[in-house]
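Regression test case RT-17, inverse folding.

Input:
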């Protein structure tokens, strides 16, 4: 910790915890103390820690080929792209390294799509309370001033509307609209699902104005809600033109993707976009192994996720400080009636790792392998924390 304070850019407000290893749903610090990991690297360690199949694939592939650049083919990009297209219902994939990079690529796709129609068709509609990443482009479409204000002026042509305000949505959309960006479940914004009616309205406006509909599923997709993607929770599913994804797909290795239909993909010609590291052999092979495991896990994830939500709703009946419990599958938020960042430290003391987002929402993104027994352990610890309530003045 001293070395980091002396030599690292001081942009993270870290907690005083030094982690050494992990196994399954558990993490261990340098003193050997055990913690139930309910945040999984902010939704990244989808299969927990040291999963035997993932570890075996990593070891094998590391001895063969880690990186080769996108100047050449390797064995795993094609099969992984096929898997993404099959599970999303779309047709084309592009690999990158992170969710922010996927958003940047989707913005470029939107601008290129619009420019082919008219030089004035460059506007983007996004939602208040949204979070899309920390690069300049991603911040430009992030609907939270606290992330934007230090870096303005940002990219022009972005309009923000409140989710559910159809009149404002209608007024914002025009022939100048190139794309509409929607988190199907807002993650950093407090685990807030978008209603099916809102997604249908977004699809309608995108079609009316020849714009691309982009669903940001970086946190809420790839199995997290109990389906492959959160837009598939609704029947019939509202189909996007573009999906951005990243966090859980490579079990801790950096990997993101843009998936699109042919119409959106046509906006990116050879030479218009690229990446040095994206879609390397190691990350793609791990992602393929993840998808094989995911197919087996989805029924368990839906069952355990429902069990966790039911348990939290039981706690809500006992603790008046809980305003609402929200979520699907293993993406869960507990909204508290007051700012509750102090709960994070109390959680660590109780052997639980989670975080607080939007100041008042306890966010939990547990590993896909979590069981009812581990959920019971989490509920017991959370009950003690909720009983303590507000910090002492």
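Golden output:
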């Amino acid at each position: 910790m001293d070395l980091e304070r002396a030599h690292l850019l001081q942009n993270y407000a870290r907690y005083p915890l030094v982690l050494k290893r992990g196994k399954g749903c558990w993490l261990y610090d340098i003193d050997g103390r055990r913690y139930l990991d309910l945040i999984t690297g902010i939704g990244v360690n989808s299969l927990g820690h040291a999963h035997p199949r993932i570890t075996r694939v990593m070891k094998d592939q590391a001895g063969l080929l880690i990186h080769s650049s996108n100047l050449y083919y390797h064995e795993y990009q094609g099969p992984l792209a096929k898997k993404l297209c099959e599970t999303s219902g779309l047709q084309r994939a592009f690999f990158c390294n992170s969710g922010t990079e996927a958003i940047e690529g989707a913005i470029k796709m939107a601008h290129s799509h619009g420019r082919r129609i008219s030089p004035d068709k460059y506007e983007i509609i996004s939602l208040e309370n949204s979070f899309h990443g920390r690069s300049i482009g991603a911040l430009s479409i992030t609907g939270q001033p606290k992330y934007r204000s230090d870096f303005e002026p940002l990219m022009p042509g972005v309009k923000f509307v409140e989710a559910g305000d159809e009149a404002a949505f209608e007024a914002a959309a025009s022939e100048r609209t190139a794309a509409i960006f929607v988190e199907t479940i807002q993650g950093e914004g407090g685990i807030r699902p978008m209603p099916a009616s809102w997604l249908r309205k977004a699809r309608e406006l995108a079609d009316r104005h020849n714009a691309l509909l982009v669903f940001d599923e970086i946190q809420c997709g790839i199995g997290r809600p109990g389906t492959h993607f959160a837009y598939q929770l609704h029947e019939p599913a509202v189909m996007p033109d573009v999906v951005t994804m990243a966090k859980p797909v490579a079990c801790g290795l950096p990997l993101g993707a843009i998936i699109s239909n042919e119409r959106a993909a046509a906006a990116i010609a050879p030479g218009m976009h690229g990446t040095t590291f994206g879609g390397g052999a190691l990350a793609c092979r791990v992602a393929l192994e993840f998808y094989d495991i995911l197919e087996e896990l989805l029924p368990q994830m839906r069952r355990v996720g429902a069990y966790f939500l039911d348990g939290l709703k039981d706690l809500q009946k006992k603790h008046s400080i809980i305003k609402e419990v929200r979520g699907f599958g293993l993406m869960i938020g507990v909204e508290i009636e007051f700012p509750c960042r102090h709960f994070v430290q109390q959680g660590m003391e109780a052997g639980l790792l989670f975080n607080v987002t939007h100041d008042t929402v306890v966010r939990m993104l547990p590993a896909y392998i979590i069981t009812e027994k581990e959920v019971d352990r989490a509920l017991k610890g959370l009950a003690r924390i909720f009983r303590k309530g507000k910090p002492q003045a």
